[in-house]
């Protein structure tokens, strides 16, 4: 059996985490086992039980360079030496990250699989000089260090690898879980007292990347056009308090519902009638695949979210330069009709079967 040390999952269940868990649960664990490396100070891992149930180990051992003076500090060398039995290390990141040190050390210690997988197509903020220098170091050395250059989309790959060849490994979805289910829809809508309402949905981290203020401004314009429209926000993040303040100022608190972080996102999507994702940047936008699997029309950011997400023709792209009112009017013109698109999605490259096949080839499984 091959053992792979995986880094890059966070303390919130977002797109990268969903991708890793879906892959992990569907690989043949008689042939390969994932163990997960986390920052030493991580507190809550919402999907910890899933990892353990599937036979994986959790190691809270990762320290940044700036933490060198902390008691118990482990260097990249210390971590790789602690895990001498691994056959590979699989690093999943949103941008150039100091975890690249792990691959450098794995190269020195002749670990066979040294995989770098980018899941975004831009920085969350303007990078510092130190980060730019580190980026240059990555671009000078990665062709020697990294055995497999992966990206979640063409856009993400070109951003991080420039002209160097890379392989697109899409953030695939177990589409069956999202298949329209009238019973689940009725249950969730009754739970939130929205049985006979139109519901605009959002799933993801409530963070700068997802543009939550603009999300609410769009909904505010929708609410002015139709007082019976509700918004269901599934997820958690550092912008939630600010968002709640904006919602209160706009006097729409009764029409905006927060679920917090949930593991059964697929159930909550059943309650929605339309999906909205006005992100500032996205490596791919796996949540749009999930929304299509749930039968929803979607609207997202033009020239920001990769067009590959539009498998069924139900993803509509609109510029962030357009006003919230324009977005709201476009949503109403598209409409709230739900449609079962499962067959189209299962035949696409984003099915979990295709993902597993691609990763089995990378790890040379028989």
* CATH architecture term of the largest domain: 3-Layer(aba) Sandwich
Helix amount: 25-40%
Mean pLDDT: 92
Tell me the strand percentage band: 15-25%
Please give the largest β-sheet.
7 strands, parallel
Strand ordering within the main sheet: 3-2-1-4-5-6-7
Which CATH first-tier class of the largest domain would you pick? Alpha Beta
Number of domains: 2
Distance between the terminal alpha carbons, to the nearest Å? 11 Å
Rg from C-alpha positions?
21 Å
Low-confidence stretches: none
SS elements, strand count: 13
CATH superfamily of the largest domain: Glycogen Phosphorylase B
Q: Find the CATH topology of the largest domain.
A: Rossmann fold
Q: Quick one: overall form?
A: globular
**What structural class results from the helix and strand content?**
alpha/beta
Describe the structure.
The chain has two domains: 2-172 and 351-362, 3-Layer(aba) Sandwich (Rossmann fold), CATH 3.40.50.2000; 175-346, Glycogen Phosphorylase B (Rossmann fold), CATH 3.40.50.2000. The chain has 14 helices and 13 strands. The protein has helices spanning 15-26, 48-53, 76-82, 100-108, 129-145, 154-161, 182-191, 212-225, 240-249, 265-270, 286-293, 324-334, 342-346, 352-362; strands spanning 2-7, 32-39, 58-62, 88-93, 113-118, 148-151, 167-168, 198-203, 229-234, 256-260, 274-277, 297-301, 315-318. The strands form two sheets. The chain has a seven-stranded parallel β-sheet. Helix 5 links the parallel strand 5 and strand 6 (148-151). The N and C termini lie close together (11 Å).
Summarize the structure.
With 366 residues, this protein is an alpha/beta fold.
């Amino acid at each position: 059996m091959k053992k792979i040390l995986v880094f890059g999952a966070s303390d919130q269940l977002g797109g990268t985490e969903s991708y890793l868990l879906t892959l992990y649960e569907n690989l043949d664990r008689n042939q390969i086992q994932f163990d997960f490396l986390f920052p030493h100070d991580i507190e809550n891992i919402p999907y910890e039980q899933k990892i353990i149930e599937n036979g994986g180990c959790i190691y809270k051992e990762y320290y940044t360079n700036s933490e060198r003076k902390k008691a118990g500090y482990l260097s990249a060398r210390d971590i790789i030496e602690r895990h001498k039995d691994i056959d590979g290390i699989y690093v999943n990141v949103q941008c150039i990250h100091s975890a690249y040190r792990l691959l450098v050390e794995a190269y020195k210690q002749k670990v066979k699989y040294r995989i770098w997988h980018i899941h975004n197509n831009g920085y969350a903020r303007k990078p510092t000089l130190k980060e730019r220098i580190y980026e240059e170091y990555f671009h000078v050395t990665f062709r020697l260090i990294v055995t497999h250059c992966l990206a979640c989309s063409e856009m993400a790959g070109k951003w991080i690898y420039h002209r160097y060849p890379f392989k697109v490994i899409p953030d695939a979805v177990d589409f069956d879980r999202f298949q329209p289910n009238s019973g689940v829809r009725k249950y969730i809508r009754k739970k939130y007292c929205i049985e006979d309402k139109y519901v605009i949905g959002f799933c993801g981290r409530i963070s700068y990347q997802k543009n939550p203020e603009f999300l609410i401004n769009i909904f505010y314009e929708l609410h002015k056009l139709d007082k019976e429209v509700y918004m269901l926000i599934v997820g958690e993040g550092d912008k939630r308090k600010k968002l709640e303040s904006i919602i209160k100022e706009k006097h729409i608190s009764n029409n905006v519902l927060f679920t917090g972080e949930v593991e059964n996102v697929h159930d909550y999507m059943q309650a929605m009638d339309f999906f909205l994702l006005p992100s500032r940047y996205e490596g791919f936008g796996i949540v749009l695949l999930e929304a299509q699997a749930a039968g929803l029309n979607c609207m997202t950011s033009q020239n920001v979210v990769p067009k590959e997400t539009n498998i069924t023709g139900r993803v509509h792209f609109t510029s962030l330069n357009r006003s919230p009112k324009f977005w709201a009017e476009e949503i109403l013109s598209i409409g709230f009709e739900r449609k079962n698109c499962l067959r189209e999605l299962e035949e696409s490259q984003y099915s979990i079967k295709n993902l597993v096949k691609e990763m089995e080839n990378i790890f040379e499984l028989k």
